[in-house]
Amino acid sequence: MLQNYSQPFEFTNLTKWIDTALNANLPAFWALVIELLLVGIALLAIYALTAMILIYVERKITAFFQARIGPNRVGKYGIFQTVADVLKILLKEIIHINRVDKFLFFAAPFFMIVASVLTFGAIPFGQSLHAVDFNIGAFYVTAVSSLGIIGVLLAGWSSNNKYSMIGAMRSGAQFVSYELSAGFALMTMVVLTGTMQFSEMIETQRYCWNIFNGHISSLVAFSIYLISGHAETNRGPFDLPEAESELTAGYHTEYSGLQFGFYYLAEYLNMFIIAGIAATVFLGGWMPLQVNGWDAFNQLMWYIPSYLWFTGKVFLLIFFSLWVRWSFPRLRIDQLLNLEWKYLLPINLVNILVMVLLVLAGWTLNDLF
Amino acid sequence: MRSIKDYFKGLFLGIKSLLFGLSVTWKELWTKKVTAQYPENRETLVISDRFRAELVMPHDENNEHACTACGICEMNCPNGTIKVISRMTETEDGKKKKELDRYVYDLGMCTFCNLCVITCPSDAIKFTNNFENAVFNRSKLVQQLNKEGSKLRAKAPKAAPAASKPEVV
Fold first, then answer.
1. Which pTM was predicted?
2. Residues of A in contact with B26 (CB under 8 A)
3. Closest approach of B54 to chain A, Cα-based (Å)
4. A68 contact B CB<8A
5. Is B90 helix (H, G, I), strand (E, B) or coil?
6. Which H or E run includes A253?
7. Are A69 and B35 within 8 A, CB to CB?
8. What is this model's ipTM?
9. CA A98 from chain center: how many Å?
């Protein structure tokens, strides 16, 4: 994993310097331990920071869609609003509910947050900024991100509350259904790129993003991935596990203080993770925009650091997610399941076949030109 | 066969309708924001004339008001917000006459129903738009509406509004 820090660009200088400094002064084992700790701390810090930025961005964009201004009192343009919110939620009392299943109730938020942190580590944030780069990256992400649903179901079950239970069950049905679509959409791209490793996926997209490379099939897979990503994160028009008019707050009704904060954090980070995976798999990840042969142009694009490319692409997708969220009304549970099982899944199965044909027949853009 | 046709028709119509919805919200994103930034926009703030914020008793330049201390407003007030305290005086020709001593209005009890203003036979009181009524102490909400040393306006100017009263009611 650590060999990722030996590539000569951007943050690489810093990470390389740390690596050599540690190895010069410490035995290899302790250098490794310290490096792992540093990576973990950096990831957690980015995790919390991203959540805060996301909450602010979401509130602002939401306000703009509703012809409002949004938070604008704490600091210039309200940029410190989320800092204040985080401080508030940290200081709030965790209310102990009578007659809940104490252990499960306490454990449920951790499942949620652990699943989201595990997935967060597998996202390539930029060149060499990639903590977990398995050769089965896409599979790992799918597997680990689906652990979160255990947290939701446990929360609903242990809360001893009908609203929580119904919310959790809805969330479970929704998650299990849409995970299928998301997995198939990723699988389509795995067929196209021929690898599951995110770093290699990005490398194959150097001159032509996957979304263009596989043209029709890629576009379909991209839309399906975004739709099912929305549904998995319980956002957008698919937020019926938390339909406040029916279920108060759904599965996290009984949670308060930091425990609620975990759910809140995980929800926003899941949105980021879905956008990050979509950007990596379909939009070329951190790879700057490059055209084969235009060396001056490519050099210019490389001046913009790769993590900014990644952030830009991710925020574009997050903006799209918010746009969708404030455009469409909430689905009913039967409509939700109809959409998945009668539309997305059959289309997806046909789509993956089409992609196989495209790749076998050599009709992808990379093959044609 | 027909059901297959319907399936695809429904699918594409659905996509079309979703895209139309997205275009509507896209336009909405760029519309002018309507949030009123309250404490900063005090100068330009527009409050409807019909808004009832605070009961006042208008006094003219001679420090005269139109209240005859008849007490109709006090009787009509559903919450006991108004206390009309009067005193008896003697005019020059020896007649006894009721005169307003203190007109006490408790803003904290008022529901702004406007019944006092509607029933006042001499248009002596009205509601204004001054809505910034927050104070630190509840006792400060109890106000005396007639100013110190004010007295009843002479009869002639008061006749006109009194005559027009019935059509308002």
1. 0.78
2. 323
3. 29
4. yes
5. strand
6. none
7. yes
8. 0.75
9. 35
